[in-house]
Specification:
single chain
Length: 101
């Protein structure tokens, strides 16, 4: 997974005001923390409709898990990775403010 790809998706999420947790929880009927391919792909397409096949494969490789022998996607991990970017951005902004002051 490239950091640049997550940064780009994070910015798209902010620009479109997408609530990832809400979207995925609507698709996670049994609240087990994973969704099928179509739901994961649908969410990524809503975030960035023009995502390349190679970038989607990076996401696929990072978040695909096996559940009962079937492919599923670990959306809590994806959400955590995006949320961690937001935390890092805030820390960097505070550090920058201290340096500038």
């Amino acid at each position: 997974m490239t950091h640049r790809l997550l940064v780009k998706l994070n910015q798209d999420i902010k620009d479109k005001n997408i609530n990832l947790e809400r979207f995925f929880k609507l698709e996670d009927d049994d609240s087990k923390g994973h969704v099928p391919f179509y739901a994961f792909r649908d969410c990524i397409d809503k975030i960035n409709p023009g995502i390349s096949k190679s970038d989607f494969l990076k996401l696929d490789n990072s978040y695909k898990i096996k559940v009962d022998g079937k492919d599923a996607y670990d959306y809590p991990k994806f959400i955590d990775d995006i949320n961690n970017l937001n935390v890092y951005e805030k820390i960097i902004a505070k550090l920058f403010d201290k340096i500038v002051d």
